[in-house]
Specification:
Blueprint (H helix, E strand, L loop, with lengths): L1 E3 L3 E6 L10 E6 L4 E3 L6 E6 L31 H4 L3
Parallel strand pairs: 1-5
Antiparallel strand pairs: 2-3, 4-5
């Protein structure tokens, strides 16, 4: 679990067991809080602990362009019962 005050957080994975591979930097964000290390398979989850969203921001950012769809990665295949960390 990685705590973050911002919308995006980087965490470094050194493998399991510790120091079994060089540091790989993994990006976690509020939109995609789960990610997996491509080298060792360790999973990381970001928990946003920052201020609540601004209720006055109504997301009027539609410019008529197609939305970018992010490619799937291994964290998309984590079983739902494992996502809560229970």
């Amino acid at each position: 679990m990685v705590n973050s005050f911002g919308d995006e957080q980087y965490c470094g994975c050194t493998g399991f067991p510790a120091d079994s591979h060089t540091v790989l930097w993994i990006t976690l964000s509020r939109a995609h809080p789960l990610n997996r290390c491509p080298e060792c398979g360790s999973c990381y989850k970001m928990e946003y602990i920052g201020p609540p969203d601004d209720p006055h921001d109504h997301h009027h950012h539609d410019d008529g362009h197609k939305k970018w769809v992010e490619a799937k990665n291994w964290s998309d295949y984590v079983r739902p019962e494992y996502r809560d960390g229970r």
